[in-house]
């Protein structure tokens, strides 16, 4: 099976929005050939249903533009989606549908009304091509999500060192031309570093076919539900491998994603690695598979700088440099890999500085450079850097066992990261370390003459 079997979906936004019909293979596709090559089998009917649902959610999330609602201060959409599946009764079950809806609404902060129709076409081909057992029964692999970013590459390098004799299946759902080349280069570096390491890349392509009737549609750029598709593919790999966990290599600061600015909440902040989303996704996948599969954040209590520092201590500096974090590259930035000014670039630079990993000529704008270089950057382009610095200032009074700033407490409880005061303690340590990392960088930056460091460094 090369692509997800053909099926139809229908969607609309609100009662006055016309109902749209799309067909897999004509308007979009999800490549499944990697499953057959690795497992000599197709996913089961129910797992194929999960992939249909995930791809449908991703497609609708891209095609329905958000409309600003000033009274709510957020982009809210009321989405109706119907999907053809093989087992509609299962997906319409109260617990399954409730978990699916809760998962999507937490991830995107939209309202989702999802229904299912029976696909009356012939069922997909048989699951196993050749007789025999699952090739991974004797030595269960480490299954993880791999985006090509700094956290996922550094985390994979660390976890491979901790699981030296275990095969690895890193899962990538790629939607940009350079993403496949990026992760394959990272796997080459890991094989070189860990001689004899067994890596089975699962690289699945998702694509919108814009040369079809979709020509002329404008995309929604936030695309919060891409993480749902990514996690669904990872869970299918775990199910077919026989393992009980999918690892997500996001640092605690990135996963919890404390808002940089007061308005950066809900759909204006990504929750793709948030602990509560991964708990909901674990519950949904476990129901679909019929056994427990959990998404695990092994670096939840570490800063990004600590994760990269662990990788650097293992001699993986080149791997860290062979990653891309920028939200604009390669769509808007072609001459440099990364812009240097977006939140992802700033977060990356902070982590690389903490880990002591040098980068030269990577960024269009060098914030961690000489004063005269910073002076060339327009003031408006420093908005995100100032937001990071303001967040550090707001974390200043934080004391473990003492004062906790209200925005920190509110975010941890409101987004279900914690449920008790006691469970909050590890994350207070986390944000204290993160604050101190920034203060140390700013102190050095003031000495080096970085203009922005004077906003934060102590006199």
Written overview of the protein:
With 459 residues, the protein is an alpha/beta fold. It folds into two domains: 8-68 and 75-127 and 138-296, Rossmann fold, CATH 3.40.50; 326-455, no CATH class. Helix content is 42%, strand content 12%. Strands 2-1-6-7 form a four-stranded mixed beta sheet. Strands 3-10-9-8 form a four-stranded mixed beta sheet, with helices on both faces.
Arrangement of strands in the largest sheet: 2-1-6-7
Rg (CA only): 22 Å
CATH topology of the largest domain: Rossmann fold
Low-confidence stretches: none
Overall geometry comes to globular
Based on the coordinates given, report the CATH architecture of the largest domain.
3-Layer(aba) Sandwich
Highest-level CATH class of the largest domain? Alpha Beta
H/E element sequence: EEEHHEEEHHEEHEHEHEHHEHHHHHHH
Number of helices: 16
- How is the biggest beta sheet arranged? 4 strands, mixed
Number of strands: 12
Q: How confident is the prediction overall: mean pLDDT?
A: 89
Which band does the percent of strand residues land in?
5-15%
Structural class: alpha/beta
How far is it from the N-terminal to the C-terminal residue, by CA? 64 Å
Helicity, as a percent range:
40-55%
